[in-house]
Design brief:
207 residues, binds adenosine-5'-triphosphate, globular, 13% strand, binds magnesium ion, 8 helices, alpha/beta
Length: 207
């Protein structure tokens, strides 16, 4: 059976994940490759309903409840979409994945990282991305970009210290698994970043 490639994009709000995924997906498709672009939370019918709860600005969620909703969404997403596409040889590019849960709910919100890792192990065992692109930039720049497009979900409304902990959390994760992560300076232009990402992926996966 063909085996696909699983690539995730991570980074704070406004770091350029969605922008770069679109550019990369289009470029790989032009090359004739089979590509699925997807996102978390929410890219299934069940996930849409969970996403509405998670990103609702006014809602008051217990941190463990929040954590489990993210995992619930991921179980549906991995089994309904990600794994079936990988099994038929697709390059699956996902906007946020487990590293977001560790960075936001763990490092930033303060839920025990051991609990998150244990839940992840129980639900997904060894399943993880082949490559994770981390778009790193100062929090203030990312949030300003999103303010300009009036994006205000529950996470944009968190304070700067929260987002700093997310950023630092991501950098720690990248330090723990340097071979899986590719860190980019996301203050660069969209075109420069797209080029670096494309080159890295071509080289790493011999495309
Ligand atoms: N390299 C860049 N330089 C300047 N602006 C950028 C760059 N990349 C993206 N932007 C702009 O910043 C805004 C946020 O980008 P984008 O939506 O891709 O970020 P994101 O990481 O997906 O954010 P979120 O986590 O909120 O979904 C958009 O208006 C986008 O056009
Ligand atoms: Mg986005």
């Amino acid at each position: 059976m063909d085996k696909g490639i699983f690539i995730t994009f991570e980074g704070i709000e406004g770091s350029g994940k969605t922008t770069q995924i679109k550019l990369l997906g289009e470029r790989l498709k032009k090359q004739g490759l089979k590509v699925l672009t997807t996102y978390e939370p929410g890219d299934t019918d069940v996930g849409q309903k969970i996403r509405n709860i998670l990103l609702e600005p006014e809602i008051n969620i217990n941190p463990l409840c929040e954590l489990i909703l993210y995992f619930a969404d991921r179980v549906q997403h991995v089994n309904e979409k990600i794994k079936p596409y990988l099994e038929t040889g697709f390059i699956v590019i996902c906007d946020r994945f487990t590293d977001s849960t560790v960075a936001y709910q763990g490092y930033a919100r303060g839920v025990s990282i051991d609990i998150i890792k244990e839940l992840n192990r129980i639900l997904f065992n060894e399943f993880k991305p082949d490559l994770t692109i981390l778009l790193d930039l100062p929090v203030i720049i990312g949030l300003k970009r999103n303010q300009q497009i009036n994006k205000t979900d529950r996470f944009e409304l968190e304070d700067l210290a929260f987002h700093d902990r997310v950023r630092e959390g991501y950098l720690k994760l990248a330090e723990i698994e340097p071979e899986r992560f590719f860190i980019l300076d996301a203050t660069k232009s969209q075109i420069e970043l797209a080029e670096e990402i494309y080159k890295t992926i071509k080289l790493r996966f011999h495309l």
